[in-house]
Structure formats: C-alpha cells, structure tokens
Design brief:
The two termini are 19 Å apart. This protein is elongated. It has two domains: 55 residues, DNA polymerase, domain 1, CATH 1.10.150.530; 281 residues, TIM Barrel (Alpha-Beta Barrel). Strands 1-2-3-4-7-8-9-10-11-12 form a ten-stranded mixed sheet. The protein has a two-stranded antiparallel sheet with strand order 5-6. Helix 1 packs across helix 2 and helix 6 runs parallel beside helix 9. The chain has 353 residues and is of the alpha/beta class.
Amino acid sequence: MVKHKQEPDVLSSSPAELEALMAPWGVPAYRARQLFEGLWRRPIRDYGDLTVWPKALRLSVEDKYPLHRVAASRVQTGQDGTLKLLVKLFDGQQVETVVLPHDYGYSVCVSSQVGCNMGCTFCASGLLKRSRNLTAGEILDQVRLANDLIQERGHVISRVDLMGIGEPMDNYENVVKFMRLAHEPLGLNLSYRHFTLSTSGLVPEIYQLAEEGIPVTLAVSLHAATDDLRSSLMPIDKAYPIAALIAACRVYGEKTGRRVSFEYALLAGVNDTDDQAMQLVRLLSGFSCHVNLIPWNPVPEHPFTPSSKNRVEQFQRIVQEHGISCTIRKELGQEIDAACGQLRRREEEALSP
C-alpha cells in the first residue's frame, strides 16, 4: 500500500503558512522563517541539518511532519552539459526534470504531473496517462535538486520552464503556488519574468492566470494554424478552438505586459509547408508575439518525421519576412532520450513484467 504524505505538506508551505502551523506549539514566527530559508536557500536534506533550531524542536517537527524530498533515481549527461533526471517522488512514482546549460547560465525544465491526459499525437509524455498531480513542493523540489547537481559547476538555476511531463494548467492551483513559493525572497527569490509556463491551450485557465499578478511568460503549444489540422494533432482544440485560444492569449499579453510565445513543432509533410507558414502569419498578424519553431524529437510510438533543416529555415524566413518574431529552438541533449517522457517510459517498460 502506498504511504500518503501527512498534511499539511511542509514543502508546499509558504513562510506565513509555516508560521501558522507552528503557532499553536508556541514556536516563535522567526523559527518558521528559518525553516523556509533552510528548505530552499541552504538547502537542508532533513530537519537534522537545521542546526539553528533546538534539537528538541527538530525532533518533534520531524516526527509530526516528515519531509518527502524528491530524489534522482537516474541521471543522463549529454555531451553539451545537459542533464536529464528521472526523479522519484515519495510514493515511488517518477517524472522527468531536465537541466539545460546556456550562455547566461542554467535553466531547469520541471514536470507538473505524473503523466498527461492531453493526448497530443506527437508527444512522448502523454503515452503514459496522468496518475496524479504534483504538489507545489514536489515541483519546487525539482529546482532544488537541479541546483544540488550544478552547484559544483559554480552555478545556480536562474530560469524555470514548466514544460516537462504534464499540462501545467491542468494542475493550476499547485503550479501557481509553486511559482509564488519560488519567488519568495527567503527562498529561491526567482523573478516571475524568469518563468515560462507552457500550455496546450486551456482557455479558462489562461484568463485566470492573467489575473494572478504574476507576469510569467506564457508559451502556447500551437503546432497548426487551422482547427482542422490542430484538432487532429491536439484533441484540446476541439474544446478550445484556435480563435478562442488566440483571444485569450491577446488578453494575457495585455494584462501582464508579457509577449506570448507560440510553440510550433515542425512535422515533415504535416504542418511545415510554405502555405502553412502563411496561415500562421495571417493568424498572428497584428499580435505582438513570438514564434518558437521546434525541430521535433522523434518518438518511436508516433508516425511522424522531423522536418529537414532546410524546411525549418524556410518556414522561419516566411514568418520573419512578415514582421513576426520567429526563432528556431536550440537542440540540446539529443543523445539522452531527448523527447520529454521518453526516459520515464523506458524505465516503466523495463520494470514491467
């Protein structure tokens, strides 16, 4: 039987929530702040490492509210310095976390769900359906784990992408709380402008996020400019067609002052023609946005082929020539189960009887 975490979840608690938790014990508020700082800035492995606390307090809190840190059960290292982690959660479930090197430092791509129910026909992470949401603390602890791995290189994570396994907007409350916790000055103190949240296009949640007062970059998985094609690639389009999605994105941009990014994975002979580039231009005309072209990482279970380098560059030229910002995503970690979800799926298959 799976042992469930006790509530409240310390790793998912803000400094104010930790203060409220400890107040009935007569613990001063500054002790709660010490705990939050220890969890995320030091960071401690367990309460025993929190030496600024009296031993008696450490033992009593550990007994009542044990920490359930995530751990890397497997680490793949790419030739370019990319790290792909298979991360084990408290209940034995696993997700993926990717640490990416850049000219400016390191970013981390975190997962928000165990599996995904969006059913995108080109995606590896959805091959194993969602079994549960991650807590805010489990998402945040992936960032802590990434920092642990790169500290010997003299770096810390400076950007966070919610682009791993799962649909972040389908775990809305935990994802928003995660970003607020990561922004806390006592903890990681990450600027909201250093977050990118990816979504397949859950329109109501885009409107809701626009009102949160957290100006993160919204990256919308578009992949086609017409409903006929997009709905065949992404079932979510049947619930929230492109016109409704673009309208929500325009509102998000206006409310937050952040330029929306549209992700477009190029599939040979499917969505990469010159005509389809022009369809995209017409769709986004007059919208201050960015298009991120993604050379697709092959997934054996899906019947697609990546577009050629020349085709990708031609598609980019057409979009750029019509005044729309458009870049090609740099390919990192190609030799280490590049598509999100592949490492987890390989592990699950290896463990199956």
